[in-house]
Design goal:
The chain contains 1 helix and 12 strands. With 185 residues, the chain is mainly β. It has one domain: Lipocalin.
């Protein structure tokens, strides 16, 4: 939802519902296709302000919960070649600002800490809806997309291919589909 549409999101604190949310990523593999994965354990909160542009987000992702539907690949991603979960078991995101692009779309500015390194990572944000749930509460949906360069976070594995290219791309695409549950006041 762009700013040209009416936001129907109540001000308040929203807990991320991990059962109805997804934190996923994609990386180009062997320069020909994408491997997609997701994290199954994460938590966080969204604080929506009366002026939506003053809203904030914090999230923590358990990196040991990575899954790409291939156990061998998942163990390799958890290893010191990639995420090194023995030393860096979590990834965190903390927003630092929210603004509107010229097109009327929201951009969430924030700091991502991964592999012991913190970098600024902007995310394109969409408010996908809000309303009552079947349990007497209120839920809102948020989608965000962005990308990182893995070597910016010290993940420097180099697996070159014969004839050029690499086994795993530097660019990692990020997709977040989040459902928040408004805390009772």
């Amino acid at each position: 939802m762009s700013t040209t549409e009416t936001l129907n999101v109540a001000a308040g604190t929203w807990d991320i519902d991990p059962v109805h949310s997804e934190v996923s990523f994609a990386a180009r593999h062997m320069m020909v296709s994408k491997v997609r994965g997701r994290f199954t354990s994460f938590s966080g909160e969204i604080v929506t302000a009366p002026n939506f542009l003053d809203s904030t987000v914090t999230a923590t992702i358990d990196l040991t919960s990575v899954t790409t539907n291939n156990d061998q690949r998942d163990e390799h991603i958890r290893s010191s070649d990639f995420l090194h979960v023995a030393d860096f078991p979590t990834m965190t995101y903390r927003s630092t600002g929210l603004h509107v692009e010229g097109s009327g779309d929201y951009v969430l500015e924030g700091e991502l800490t991964l592999h012991g390194v913190t970098r600024s990572v902007p995310l394109e944000l969409e408010v996908t809806g809000s309303g009552p749930d079947a349990y007497g509460g209120t839920r809102s949906g948020f989608s965000a997309t962005g990308s990182i360069n893995r070597s910016d976070f010290g993940i420097n594995i180099s697996l070159p291919l014969d004839g050029g290219g690499v086994v795993v791309s530097e660019k990692i695409q990020i997709q977040l589909d989040i459902q928040g549950v408004l805390r009772a006041s």
